[in-house]
């Protein structure tokens, strides 16, 4: 029977767990300078044990790197290697790696190790050192400044029985470990996207999000080629103010486009004041609304006079 994919250690490491589930998380808040004893290498008894029976949620940057590595368009990658999921118990749609039917392992693992190692997903890089670094409300004040009072940032260790890396002699600080795993770049790339997810999580599902908004979030998060077509082949650029320099950048640069998509999503999903609708579009919309109002008013007047006339005729 296929093992149920519960919140896995790698998923916890990616999203941060805030020590709510202490089952395999050591109850210690660590800092960059904290030391850990750990080493993972092909000689460990458990080599690749952490690459099966897991849930690995992919961030937009993970997908970008993996599709480039595999020289595959996003839609093909998504179809072949992923399956849908909801992010962090919210209604935000995302994808996770689809484990192999035959052994419930990651599609990229072999007995020799990870075949996409230098482009492995963020969750794999974090493990076993998770980071909690989220604004609880993800909100901004009236001046558009981030509210940081509730921000909390710390590291924690996910320690699972099968992981023998903790028996190794190598000692590092968290900072050294993270540099070695290349997580700093990933953090920078994922930051705004994770913030969107955590913002949705902290608002709860009371605030409704339309299906169209969720579809847009999914498309922008998983398929940058489609998002680029949306920008350049729809009325997007007629609607929003986007400067020439940005337009040139996002035409060819996928990373720039990805960051741009986060800004756009923050504006459309949460109303962040980060994108401006063109003045003429606003005017046209106001005019259209006014025309509609005028039309309804004219209809109401006509209806009223028709009824009045009918009554008068009946009374004669
Ligand atoms: S991507 Fe690589 S490191 Fe991550 S689970 Fe798969 S095989 Fe393991
Ligand atoms: S030491 Fe831990 S991280 Fe390395 S392969 Fe074993 S289980 Fe995975």
Overview of this protein structure:
With 316 residues, the chain is mostly helical. The chain has 2 domains: 9-203, no CATH class; 211-277, no CATH class. Helix content is 47%, strand content 11%. It contains 12 helices and 10 strands. The chain has helices spanning 9-15, 60-70, 74-81, 122-126, 174-181, 183-203, 211-222, 224-233, 236-239, 244-252, 254-270, 279-315, and strands at 35-37, 82-86, 93-97, 109-110, 113-114, 129-134, 152-157, 171-173, 240-241, 276-277. Strands 1-8 form a two-stranded antiparallel sheet. It has a two-stranded antiparallel ribbon with strand order 2-3. A two-stranded antiparallel sheet has the order 4-5. Helix 7 (211-222) packs antiparallel against helix 11. The longest helix is centred in the last third of the chain and has 37 residues, at 279-315. The model is unreliable at 1-5 and 136-145 (pLDDT under 50). One iron/sulfur cluster (SF4) binds at residues 51, 56, 106, 108-109, 114, 116, 120-121, 124. One iron/sulfur cluster binds at residues 51, 56, 106, 108-109, 114, 116, 120-121, 124.
Question: What topology emerges from the helices and strands here?
Answer:
Layout: H1 9-15, E1 35-37, H2 60-70, H3 74-81, E2 82-86, E3 93-97, E4 109-110, E5 113-114, H4 122-126, E6 129-134, E7 152-157, E8 171-173, H5 174-181, H6 183-203, H7 211-222, H8 224-233, H9 236-239, E9 240-241, H10 244-252, H11 254-270, E10 276-277, H12 279-315
Antiparallel strand pairs: 1-8, 2-3, 4-5, 6-7, 9-10
Helix pairs in contact: 6-11, 7-11, 10-11
This protein binds iron/sulfur cluster (2 copies).
């Amino acid at each position: 029977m296929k093992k149920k994919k519960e919140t896995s250690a790698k998923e916890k490491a990616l999203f941060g767990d805030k020590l709510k589930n202490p089952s395999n998380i050591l109850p210690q808040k660590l800092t960059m300078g904290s030391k850990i004893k750990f080493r993972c290498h092909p000689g460990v008894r458990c080599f690749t044990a952490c690459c099966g029976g897991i849930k690995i949620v992919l961030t937009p940057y993970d997908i970008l790197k993996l599709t480039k590595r595999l020289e595959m368009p996003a839609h093909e990658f998504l179809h072949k290697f992923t399956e849908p999921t909801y992010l962090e118990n919210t209604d935000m749609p995302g994808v996770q790696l689809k484990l192999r039917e035959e052994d419930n392992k990651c599609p990229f693992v072999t007995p020799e190790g990870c075949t996409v190692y230098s482009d492995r997903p963020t969750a794999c890089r974090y493990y076993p050192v998770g980071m909690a670094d989220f604004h609880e409300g993800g909100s901004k004040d009236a001046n558009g400044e981030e509210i940081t009072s509730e921000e909390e940032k710390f590291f924690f260790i996910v320690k699972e029985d099968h992981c023998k890396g903790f028996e190794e002699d190598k000692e590092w600080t968290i900072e050294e470990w993270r540099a070695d795993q290349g997580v700093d770049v990933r953090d920078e790339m994922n930051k705004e996207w994770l913030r969107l997810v955590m913002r949705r999580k902290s608002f709860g599902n009371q605030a409704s999000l339309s299906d169209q908004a969720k579809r847009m979030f999914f498309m922008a998060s998983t398929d940058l080629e489609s998002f680029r077509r949306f920008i350049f082949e729809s009325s997007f650029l007629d609607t929003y103010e986007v400067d020439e320099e940005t337009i040139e950048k996002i035409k060819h640069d996928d990373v720039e486009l990805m960051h741009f998509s986060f800004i756009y999503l923050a504006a459309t999903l949460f109303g962040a004041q980060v994108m401006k609708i063109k003045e003429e579009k606003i005017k046209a919309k106001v005019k259209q609304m006014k025309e509609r109002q005028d039309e309804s008013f004219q209809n109401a007047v006509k209806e009223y006079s028709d009824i009045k006339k009918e009554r008068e005729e009946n009374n004669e």
